[in-house]
Amino acid sequence: MTLAPWFAMLIAAADLGRLPVDTIVVGPGGAVPAVTVALERAKPGDVVVVTAGRYREPTLVLRTPNVTLLGRGWPVLDGEGKRAVLVVEANDVTVRGFTVTGTGVSNLEDRAGIRARNAHRCRIEGNRVYDNLWGIYLERSAECVVRNNDIRASGASQSTSGNGIHLYQSPQALIEDNRILGQRDGIYFEFSEGGLTRRNVSEENQRYGLHFMYSDSCRYDSNTFRANAAGVAVMYSRGVTIANNRFADAWGGGAYGLLLKEILGGEIRGNTFERNSTGLFLEGATRLEIRDNDFLQNGWAARVFADATENHFVGNHFRANAFDVTTNSRSANSTFDGNWWDGYRGYDLNRDGVGDVPFHPVRLFALIVEQHPASLLLLRSPTVAVLDAAERVMPMLTPEALVDKRPLIKPVRKSAANPGAERGAPR
Amino acid sequence: MNVIRLIVSAGLRDLSRSRWLIGYALGFFALAEGLFWFGGSGPQVVLSLLNIVLMVVPLVALVFGAIHVYASREFVELLLAQPVPRKPLFTGLWLGLALPLAGAFAVGAGLPFVFHGGGGAGFAALATLAVAGVVLSFIFSGIATWIAWSTDDRLRGVGLALGVWLAATVLYDGAILAATAAFGDYPLERPLLGAMILNPVDLARLVVLSQLDASALMGYTGALFNKALGTAGGAAVAGAALLAWCGVPYLMSARRFARRDF
User: Fold this and answer.
1) A146-175 mean pLDDT
2) Band (A424; pLDDT cuts 50, 70, 90)
3) Cα gap A222→A105, rounded to integer Å
4) Are B52 and A418 a contacting pair at CB < 8 A?
5) In sequence order, what are the residues at sequence separation of 6 or more whose Cβ sits closer than 8 angstroms to the Cβ of residue A132?
6) Residue A169 and residue B66: Cα distance in Å, rounded?
7) Mean pLDDT (whole number) for A171-176
8) CA of B56 to nearest chain A CA: how many angstroms apart?
9) Using a CB cutoff of 8 Å and minimum separation of 24, what contacts does A226-230 make?
C-alpha cells in the first residue's frame, strides 16, 4: 500500500477547507464549451480546467486574480493568425499545460501568445507556445515565474517576428528551464531588475539569444545560447552576474558570443564560449570580474576595447582561437592574471604551475588586423606564423598593452569540448 | 601519346623507388595520424595541416623537382638522340615528376582521414586541402622544371628554387602586410583579393579557409571574401586561377625545353 492516495486526500481536504473553490471544466460539447465563458465565471481561487480540443475564440482576457488555468491533454488556444491569444490582467494567476498558437503577424500591435499585464506573481509553466509573433510577454508584472515552456516560431525575418520571452518593467522574475527556438530575440529583459534566468536553451533565433537593457542586478546561470544570428548582447546595466552559460556558434560579421556594452560592475564566471566569430566583446564595460571561463575555437576569443576599464581576466582558458585577445589601442585598461593560453611557450623553473615569462595575448598580427581589417586575408598564412615566431625572439615587436604576468602552465580544469585540440600548426 | 605514356611510366617507376618520396609520404602520414592521435577533430586537423601543406609541398616540389631534373639530364639527352618528338617527351617528363609528388602527398596525408572516417564535418575542407596540395605539387614542380631547364648551373638552379619558395610562401605575404599597413586609409579589400589570386600559395590557403567557415569571422572582409571565393562562381574563379597556375609554368618550360640547344 502506498501513501500517495492518502496525501492526495489530505491535500484535497486542505484545499476544500481553505476556500470554497470551484473547478470549472471547459470542453467541446460540455457544459462550458468556451474558455471565454469560464474566464467570466471564475471567482478568485477557482481552477479552470480546459480539456483537449481546439479553441478559436476572441482574445482571452482573465481579469480575476488567483485563478489557475489548467490545460488537460494539451488543449489548443488558437488565434487563427488574427489576434493575441491569452492576456492575463490579474495577480497570482497560473497558466499551465496549454498549446498557444497563431497570433499571426502584425505591424501595429505586439501580439503575444501569452501576455501578463499588470499581473504580479503570475506563473506560466509547461506550455507549448508555437508560431506566435511574441511568445510570452510580461508587462509591468513583478515576481513572475516562467518555467518549462517550449517556445518556437518559424518567422521568416526579424521584422516579422517578436521575442520569445519578453520582460518589460517586470522585476524579480524567475525564468527557468524554457526552450526558445526561432524567435527574434530569445529572451529580452527591458527595465526589469533583479531577475534570475537559468537553465534555458535559446537557439537559432533571428537576432539575439539573450538581450537585456537597463536591467540591473540580474543573474543568468547555466543557460545555453546557440546559433543565434547575432549571438547575445547585453547593454546599459549594472551588477550583472553571468555564470555557467554556454555561448556557442554565433558566426558572422556582426555576431558575438557575448557582447557587453556599457555594463558597470558584475561577474562573468565559468561560461563556455565556443565557435563564435567573437567570443566576448567588451565595449565600455567597467569593473567586471571575468573568471574561469573557457574560450574555445573562436575567431576572436575576447575583444577588449580601450574604453573597457578595470576588468580582470582570471583563470580563463584560451584554446584553439584564431586570436586570443585584441584591442583597438596600444594602451590597455584591463588586466589579465593567471589565465591558461594554448599559445604560451614559456617555462616554469620553480614548478609552481605559473610560467616564469609573461604572456602577451595580443599578437602583432591581431593588432594589425584590428587597425586594418583587410589584412585578415592573410589569416593562417605562413608569413603570420613567421611573424609569431619573430615576436617570440624579439619581444619588442609585441604590443605591451595587455600582458598576463602569471600565465598558467597547465589548464586547471577539463575544457568542455575537444580536449587536446590545438590551434594552427604545431610549433 | 605513346611517348608520353612511356616516359611517365618510366618516371613513375623511377620515383616510386625514391627514398625521398617515400619519406615525404610517410612524413605526411605520421603528421596527420599524429594530429588525430592527439585528439584533434577533422576540421582542426585540416587547419593544422594547412600551414604545413602550404610550406612543405611547394618546398619539396621545387627543390626535389629541380634536383630530379638535373639528375635526369643525361637520360633525357640519351632519349633525345633517338627519334622522339620533344613536346611529348617533355610532357612525359613533367608528369613523371608531378604525378608521384602529388600522389605521395595525397596518399600520405589522406590515409589517416580514411582510417578516422573521413574527418566527419571537415570532409569538404579535407577534400579541398587534398586538391590544393595536389595542385600546388603540379604548379611548383612545373616551376622547378622551368628553373632547371633554364639554368645549367645546378647550384644556382636549386638556389633559385629556394628563392622562389621563400618569395611565394613568406616574402609575398610580408609585402602584402606591409602594403596593407602603409595604405590602410584606402579600401584595400578588392586589390588584396586580386593580389591573393596572383600567388598560388595564397590562393590555395584561401580556398581551404573558405571551406572551414573561418571566413565568417572576418566582417566586411569576410563577406567580400565569401562572395569572391565561397560561392559557386567564386570557387569557379579560384579553380580557374589555380588551373592557369598549373598551365603557365608548364607551357613556359615546355617552350624552353623545345627550343633548348643540348
Assistant:
1) 90
2) very low
3) 32
4) no
5) A79, A85, A100, A101, A102, A103, A111, A112, A113, A153, A162
6) 75
7) 96
8) 11
9) A226/A201, A226/A202, A227/A203, A228/A186, A228/A202, A228/A203, A228/A204, A228/A255, A229/A205, A229/A255, A230/A254, A230/A255, A230/A256
Sign of the alpha-carbon dihedral angle for B107, B112, B115, B120 = negative
- Helix B189-197 to helix B172-182 angle (10° resolution) is 170
The amino acid occupying position B218 is M
Task: Assess A252–B contact: CB distance below 8 Å, yes or no.
Answer: yes
Spans in chain B with pLDDT lower than 50: none
Q: Are A35 and A60 in contact (CB under 8 A)?
A: yes
CA distance B50 to A424: 8
Q: Determine the Cα–Cα distance for residues A53 and A17; give it in Å rounded to an integer.
A: 32
- Chain A interface mutation, best of B31, B213, B218, highest count of A Cβ atoms under 10 Å: B218
- What integer pLDDT is reported at residue A418 of this predicted model? 41
**Mean pLDDT of all residues in chain A?**
88
The three cell numbers of residue A314 are 582570471
Are residues A253 and B219, on separate chains, in Cβ contact within 8 Å? Answer: yes
Q: What residue segments make up the domains of chain B, in order of their start?
A: 2-259
The ipTM (two decimal places) reads: 0.82
Sign of dihedral through CA atoms A60, A102, A232, A200? positive
Residues 6+ apart with CB under 8 A from A68: A46, A47, A48, A93, A94, A96
Residue of A319, A377, A415 to mutate, interface with B, max B Cβ within 10 Å = A377
Q: A1 falls in which pLDDT band (50, 70, 90)?
A: very low
Distance from CA of A227 to the nearest CA of B (A): 13
Q: According to the model, what pLDDT value does residue A426 have?
A: 32
Q: Model confidence over B142-188: pLDDT tens digits?
A: 999 999 999 999 999 999 999 999 999 999 999 999 998 888 888 88
pLDDT of residue A199: 97
Residue ranges and CATH numbers for the domains of chain A are: 85-397 (2.160.20.10)
DSSP code per residue over B175-242: HHHHHHHHTTTS--HHHHHHHHHTSHHHHHHHHHHHHTTGGGGGHHHHHHHIIIIISHHHHHHHHHHH
Check whether A15 has a pLDDT greater than 90.
no
- Whether residues B217 and A383 touch (CB distance < 8 A) is answered with no
Which whole-number Å values give the CA distances from A136 to A24, A152, A375, B133, in the listed order? 25, 11, 45, 54
Which residue of chain B comes nearest to A368, CA vs CA?
B181
pLDDT at res. A17: 45
